Every structure is written in structure tokens, then in C-alpha cells.
Amino acid sequence: MSGGIAFFDSGMGGLSVLKHFLERFPGTSVTYLGDTARFPYGTKSRETIVRFAREDARFLAEMKPDLIIAACFTVSSQAFVEFSEEVRPIPTLGVLEAGARVASALTRSGSIGVLATEGTIRSNAYPRLISGIDPAIRVFAQPCPLFAPLVEEGWVSGAVAEAVSMEYLAPFLTKWKSVDTVILGCTHYPPLLPVLQKILPDVTFVDPGYELALEISNRNLVKDHPERHSTMRFFVTDGVERFLRIGQNLLKRPMGDVVLVDPVSEKLAEHGERS
After folding, report:
1. pLDDT above 90 (res 111)
2. What is the b/e burial string over 91-109, where b = at least 16 CB atoms within 10 angstroms of the residue's CB?
3. Residue 106 lies in a domain
4. Judgement on whether residues 162 and 219 belong to the same structural domain of the protein
């Protein structure tokens, strides 16, 4: 591949970002790397996250895309500078800023909630970003460590998803009732949106992946290559069959082949085997 957009995430969550891009840029070639063997990133130390991000970035840079998107809030909040340095001069984007801007514009109460991984919350990235936009806005962050595994297993509805969601959203029904806007601060969370809206029907939920795709469209950051046929390529570091089965349901379209890869050695493995 040369040109197009490359995405990476710790697993399947980044597919929620990719879905918005495919809807907005249907003719653009895309590559997606899911580091499923080392999922989740959100509970790892910053040093480990930086190392993983650098390795993932190097692998994608070999394909010479026009743009690389860190479709992972943990990397975007804790390792984005190092990730970007690794692929320079290829432009890079994260998934934090677009959601922060939109949520800050939408809130009327001046209280914004953030649902995110422990790593993203620990980084203090959203309070810092939102304070830079409007220092008067208060941010209430709720870690949701079980949301990502639920989505990775395809459990995005039903009794289990509802019970876990109710546990995490309980503060917004009691001590944080002033919150009127909530940022889905992990790319795994959008598939749970119908459950979250059922519990908090009067809250506006912001999907940063959607907002990022809209911003990129408005700013004309994606190059056209009309002479080329668009392609979709998917790489994972473990669990090809599982990624294909659950990923197609999340993406709402066929994915074709999913190839196993080792981003550390940057050598493709045989389909279905580790190198």
C-alpha cells in the first residue's frame, strides 16, 4: 500500500473509528492494525504503552500511508508524541481533541463526563484539553475497565452489558447529575451507546471517532487518488478468526482477509499462525 489512511488500536475498538471513515471517505484505501495479542493497553504502564505504540507505528509507516491515526485513546493520551516521532514525516492524528472540542461546545450545564480506560484518566488528558478550551467547565471522569473486554467479546447488548453499564454510570444518576454531555473516551465504547443512552436518556454522548472523521472531511486532510482502486487491509497480532467474526459485526460490512503480523519484527506470519 502507498497512500490512504492507516489506523491502529490495541484491539477491535478502533474499528468504531474506521467505520465512520469508511462512511465519509468510501473511496479511500485503509489499513488497520489491531494489537490483539497485547490488549488491553489501558492498564499498562506509560513506558510499556510508548514501546507498543512505537512498534505499531513503525509497522504501519512501512506501508507509506498519507496519514496515520492512533485510533486508541490510551496511546493518544500517553504516547502520541513518541508515536508521531516514530513515523515522521508522515502526518499523524489522535482521537482526543475532536471530542473535547465538540463536548465543550455542546454542554449547557458546564459539566462534562468522560468514560475512559484507567490509563486515559490517569493521564489527565481530557481535563487538561477542556480546561484549555473553557476553564469554567468541570470534568467528571469515570474509569470503565470492563467495557473494552465486553466489546472485544461482542457483548454489546443484553443483561451483562446493561448491568456493567449501570454500575459505571451510577455516579451520573446521583452525585454527578449536573453532567449533560458525556465523551466516550475509548474507541471500544461506541458499540455500547444504545445501552448507555437507555440508562442516561437526557445526556448527550459524544463519539470522538465520528467527530474526528467530520473534522478531517471539513479540513480536506485526506488525499484523493482517483487512479487507484481502494483497498481495505486488516492486520492483527493474535486471534484472526475471532477478530474477523466480531469485527465484521462491529464494522457492519465484510472485512475480507485478516492477516497475522508481528509488529516487533515487522514480518508477516502465515495466516492463522504466530511468527
Report:
1. yes
2. ebbbbbbbbbbbbbeebee
3. yes
4. no
Report the interhelical angle of 240-251 vs 15-24 (nearest 10°): 50
* Residue 144 a catalytic site member: no
CATH of the domain at 40: 3.40.50.1860
Total number of domains in the chain: 2
Write down the H helix ranges in the chain: 15-24, 46-61, 73-78, 80-87, 97-106, 118-123, 125-133, 147-152, 159-173, 193-199, 208-218, 240-251
DSSP assignment, residue 255? -
**Cα separation of 11 and 3, whole Å?**
23
CA distance 59 to 154: 27
Q: Which of 30, 50, 53, 72 is catalytic?
A: 72
Q: Is residue 274 part of a domain?
A: no
Do 69 and 199 belong together in one domain? no
Kindly report, residue by residue over 43-91, the tens digit of the pLDDT: 899 999 999 999 999 999 999 999 999 999 999 999 999 999 999 999 9
Cα 186 from Cα 20, distance rounded (Å): 15
Boundaries of domain holding 83 = 5-94+212-268
Calculate helix-pair angle for 208-218, 15-24, nearest 10 degrees: 30
Catalytic, out of 141, 161, 164, 186: 186
Over residues 82-95, the pLDDT tens digits come to 999 999 999 999 99
- Per-residue pLDDT at 274: 37
